[in-house]
């Protein structure tokens, strides 16, 4: 049997789709006679991105730093919390509803509170990013910890493994695919979180602002192509994060997981 | 220690408030016995094996292993699961090493023991492979090597070869007996294959279902080592027919 995944990836199809999308963009702009302050053409966005490259690069760096710190904090705290909840059913029952409460509370509401507590700037942005990244990691990793195979668990009972041995040698490695899935979702959210945080709690300290803050600036200046360019930068940042997690996925799972071995299920 | 290695005294099992799965099962096994459990699905033979392994307690009666209750004697008996049940992220050698590591054996001793066990099951060259790279039969060999690494006095096998094709199964049956010549463990073996049961065992225990009880014990007189040609002898074929008849008589 030949796995569909064993087919070689071809760049022709995604590139072709991209060309079609850009063509559609131009066609819509032309068909509806849209001026550039409503819908700039792709080349105008690229030109604006080039003209604003210094500002955009520094703001990408600022946002990237906030996103990375918030993401890493969410990964660390999320993993540990999942571990704790996997250790004890009672703890899971006690804590999980409040993890949900945290997730259900809109960031729009939390952000001003963080600004109140932490002031404008990086700490508040990191906090917002953390809040957005936290839940997918906890939800997935907890699922990974509790879905260890029944027979494998019995094997550990048979070997008289301690609770700790079971965690280290069965639960943690078994949860890795779930953990990485959570991280992947969080990685797409981290730049969004940092930009949202920057939008709500950012400032232009020493002339340096994040992407979220720049969207406000560009909008107020009616630099619409540059506003679109911030979207481009945000996308690039997202791809960078996802790429990093994919690398981690490869490093951890390449030897054994079905997602990497190309084995038919 | 006096008395048999494994003794079951009027053992019964029911889950929750349901109907009993097993009732009044009494059985004794001496060192060197190879006892097969055969019977219709749902007769509780796998459950019985798990009780001997100490994974679940009997709800009636008593099981003693080497003189003490089964739950406290886990070191004496090791279960080979129905599927190979290997950790997919560990290489073959590391899978065989797992029980020794969990027991806290020293690293050097573990390595030597793993090499010895892989040699025993004929998988020396696969030590560095991951489970997904192995065939079903090879995975089962790893699983047996893992169980034997603990040098248990009793090996419990729960339909270990049921997922394999017949030729692989025959081959593994022969290998299992060859391994037992070198490492003489007492075995309890659950199977659906009458041929397998007769070929391997000193005794075949036929169960009836609803609730599971021992219908009949058939002793298999052929001496070990048993060559594969045993399968073609009239004595073997006669016993096979008799066991089949017994099994048919207990089917609903």
Summary of the model, kept short:
The complex is a heterodimer of chains A (265) and B (252). Chain A has helices spanning 12-31, 42-51, 53-87, 89-104, 107-118, 122-146, 150-158, 163-201, 211-220, 224-253, 258-261.
SSE blueprint and pairings:
The complex is a heterodimer of chains A (265) and B (252).
Chain A: H1 12-31, H2 42-51, H3 53-87, H4 89-104, H5 107-118, H6 122-146, H7 150-158, H8 163-201, H9 211-220, H10 224-253, H11 258-261
Helix pairs in contact in A: 2-10, 3-4, 3-6, 3-8, 3-10, 4-6, 5-6, 5-8, 6-8, 8-9, 8-10, 9-10
Chain B: E1 6-14, E2 20-29, E3 34-38, H1 45-52, E4 60-65, E5 68-69, E6 77-80, H2 92-103, H3 107-120, H4 136-149, E7 154-158, H5 166-182, E8 186-190, H6 194-200, E9 203-208, E10 213-219, H7 234-250
Parallel strand pairs in B: 3-8, 3-9, 6-7, 7-8
Antiparallel strand pairs in B: 1-2, 1-4, 4-5, 9-10
Helix pairs in contact in B: 2-3, 2-4, 3-4, 6-7
Return the average pLDDT of chain A rounded to an integer. Answer: 91
Radius of gyration of chain B: 18 Å
Number of helices of chain A: 11
Based on the structure, what is the oligomeric state of the protein chains?
heterodimer
CATH architecture descriptor text of the largest domain in chain B? 3-Layer(aba) Sandwich
Mean pLDDT across residues of chain B: 92
Account of the protein in words:
The complex is a heterodimer of chains A (265) and B (252). Chain A is mainly α. Helix content of chain A is 79%, strand content 0%. Chain A is built from eleven helices and no strands. Chain A has helices spanning 12-31, 42-51, 53-87, 89-104, 107-118, 122-146, 150-158, 163-201, 211-220, 224-253, 258-261. Chain B folds into two domains: 6-76 and 152-250, Rossmann fold (3-Layer(aba) Sandwich); 86-151, no CATH class. Helices cover 35% and strands 23% of the residues of chain B. In chain B, the strands form two sheets. Chain B has a six-stranded mixed β-sheet, sandwiched between helices. In chain B, helix 2 crosses helix 3 (107-120) and helix 3 crosses helix 4 (136-149). The interface between A and B is medium-sized, with 23 and 22 residues.
């Amino acid at each position: 049997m030949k796995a569909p995944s064993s087919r070689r990836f071809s760049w022709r199809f995604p590139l072709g789709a991209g060309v079609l999308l850009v063509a559609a963009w131009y066609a819509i702009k032309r068909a509806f006679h849209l001026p550039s302050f409503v819908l700039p053409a792709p080349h105008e966005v690229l030109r604006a991105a080039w003209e604003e490259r210094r500002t955009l690069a520094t703001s990408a760096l600022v946002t990237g730093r906030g996103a990375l710190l918030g993401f890493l904090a969410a990964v660390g705290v999320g993993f540990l919390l999942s571990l704790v909840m996997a250790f004890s059913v009672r703890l899971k029952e006690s804590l999980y509803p409040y993890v949900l409460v945290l997730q259900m509370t809109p960031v729009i509401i939390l952000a001003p509170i963080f600004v109140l507590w932490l002031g404008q700037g990086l700490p508040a942005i990191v906090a917002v990013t953390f809040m957005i990244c936290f839940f997918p990691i906890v939800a997935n990793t907890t699922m990974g910890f509790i879905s260890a195979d029944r027979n494998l668990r019995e094997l550990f009972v048979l070997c008289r493994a301690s609770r700790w041995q079971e965690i280290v040698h069965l639960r943690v490695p078994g949860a890795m695919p779930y953990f990485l899935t959570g991280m992947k979702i969080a990685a797409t959210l981290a730049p969004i979180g940092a930009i949202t945080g920057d939008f709500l709690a950012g400032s232009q300290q020493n002339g340096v602002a994040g992407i979220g803050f720049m969207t406000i600036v560009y909008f107020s200046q009616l630099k619409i192509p540059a506003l679109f360019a911030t979207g481009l930068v945000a996308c690039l940042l997202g791809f960078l994060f996802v790429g990093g997690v994919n690398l981690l996925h490869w490093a951890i799972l390449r030897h054994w997981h079905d997602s990497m071995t190309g084995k038919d299920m | 220690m006096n008395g048999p290695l494994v003794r079951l005294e009027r053992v019964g099992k029911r889950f929750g408030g349901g109907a009993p799965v097993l009732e009044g099962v009494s059985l004794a096994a001496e060192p060197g016995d190879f006892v097969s459990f055969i019977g219709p699905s749902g007769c509780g033979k796998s459950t019985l094996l798990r009780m001997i392994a100490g994974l679940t307690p009997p709800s009636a009666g008593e099981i003693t292993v080497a003189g003490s209750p089964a739950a406290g004697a886990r070191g004496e008996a090791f279960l080979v699961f129905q599927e190979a049940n290997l950790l997919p992220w560990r290489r073959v050698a590391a899978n065989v090493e797992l029980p020794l590591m969990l027991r806290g054996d020293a690293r050097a001793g573990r390595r030597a023991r793993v090499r010895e066990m892989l040699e025993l099951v004929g998988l020396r060259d696969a030590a560095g492979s991951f489970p997904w790279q192995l065939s079903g039969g090879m995975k089962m060999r790893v699983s047996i090597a893992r169980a034997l690494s603990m040098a248990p006095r009793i090996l419990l096998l729960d339909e270990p070869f049921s997922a394999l094709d017949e030729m692989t199964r025959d081959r593994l049956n022969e290998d299992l007996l060859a391994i037992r010549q070198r490492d003489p463990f007492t075995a309890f073996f659950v199977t659906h294959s009458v041929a397998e049961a007769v070929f391997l065992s000193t005794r075949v225990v036929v169960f009836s279902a609803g609730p599971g009880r021992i219908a009949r014990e058939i002793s298999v007189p052929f001496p070990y080592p048993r060559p594969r040609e045993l399968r073609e002898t009239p004595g073997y074929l006669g016993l096979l027919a008799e066991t089949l008849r017994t099994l048919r008589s207990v089917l609903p």
